[in-house]
Design a protein that fits this description.
Elements (H helix, E strand, L loop, with lengths): L1 H45 L2 H11 L4 H21 L2 H4 L3 H24 L2 H20 L1 H4 L12 H16 L4 H12 L4 H26 L4 H22 L4 H23 L2
Helix pairs in contact: 1-2, 1-11, 2-3, 3-10, 3-11, 5-8, 5-10, 6-12, 8-9, 8-10, 9-10
Length: 273
């Protein structure tokens, strides 16, 4: 009888552990979905989705490189939604998008290779700097968004090199890369801002997709985390434009930027000590 009582207690404890494990797993899924939704909206406002979603993956226990590649794979859905929502602005720009997209896809693949071939410690050391720089760039964005097209435009090898360089950054990490891409494309293309932004969404998505393919094949992607995060990105990218019309964009941008700076300091303390 005593043995049966002990067995019963152990069985009940086992059920409790299983139930607790399911609860923790459910909460993690909800947290990832919520983070993806918020990041999708943040991407619409400020092109800073990674600064919102990346720390959530870290908080759930993923190593920095694994969190980064998982985030990149999930971000493909944001690019797909943005492209679908920009069909009107993309009308007549097919050849241009293919030309620039081939360049950014190559850059994104190179950035992914750089991340996978360099030591994880190198990324851990540089991530706080990248997040801090991206957050500062976000805060000062209005001061640099008034650029106009340069002579030579798309044919300028300097601007093409700049675009390829930003695409490498997209594949490597990508926080605030949308701002860098918009600045570069504004200097390249003599078009209205909505049409340039639509091109930016597509070529950024192509760079991100090329990196995601490399990470899916060779990187430490945590698919259980990528799936709910991707669903959140898809929802956030879809509802983002409607929300942005009702939110104070400047305050939201500055708030996200300050949060990113705080995160950069916290990660820097952990990385450099």
């Amino acid at each position: 009888m005593a043995i049966l009582r002990v067995a019963g207690v152990l069985l009940r404890q086992g059920h409790a552990v299983m139930w607790l494990g399911r609860l923790v797993s459910t909460l993690a899924i909800l947290a990832l979905f919520g983070a993806g939704t918020l990041a999708g909206v943040a991407s619409t406002v400020a092109s800073l989705a990674s600064v919102v979603s990346y720390p959530v993956l870290l908080a759930l226990g993923l190593p920095p490189v694994s969190a980064n590649v998982t985030n990149t794979v999930a971000l493909v859905f944001t690019g797909a939604g943005a492209a679908a929502g920009s069909r009107r602005e993309l009308a007549g720009q097919g050849r241009l998008v293919r030309r620039l997209g081939a360049l950014t896809a190559a850059g994104g693949a190179a950035g992914a290779a750089l991340l996978l071939l360099t030591p994880a410690s190198a990324f851990e050391a540089v991530a706080p700097v990248l997040i801090g720089a991206a957050s500062l760039l976000l805060i000062v964005q209005p001061r640099i968004s008034g650029l106009t097209a340069r002579p030579g435009g798309e044919r300028s090898w300097r601007l093409r090199a700049a675009l390829a360089g930003v695409a490498v950054y997209v594949g490597y990490f990508g926080a605030a890369a949308g701002i860098l891409l918009l600045v570069t494309l504004t200097a390249m293309l003599d078009q209205s801002l909505p049409r340039i932004n639509a091109v930016k969404n597509v070529v950024s998505g192509m760079a991100n997709a090329a990196a995601a393919i490399g990470f899916a094949l060779f990187g430490p992607v945590r698919w259980a985390a990528a799936a709910p995060l991707a669903a959140g990105f898809l929802l956030g990218g879809w509802i983002g434009p409607a929300l942005v019309r009702r939110l104070p964009a400047h305050a939201l941008r500055v708030g996200i930027g300050i949060g990113g700076l705080i995160l950069a300091v916290r990660l820097g303390i952990g990385a450099y000590h």
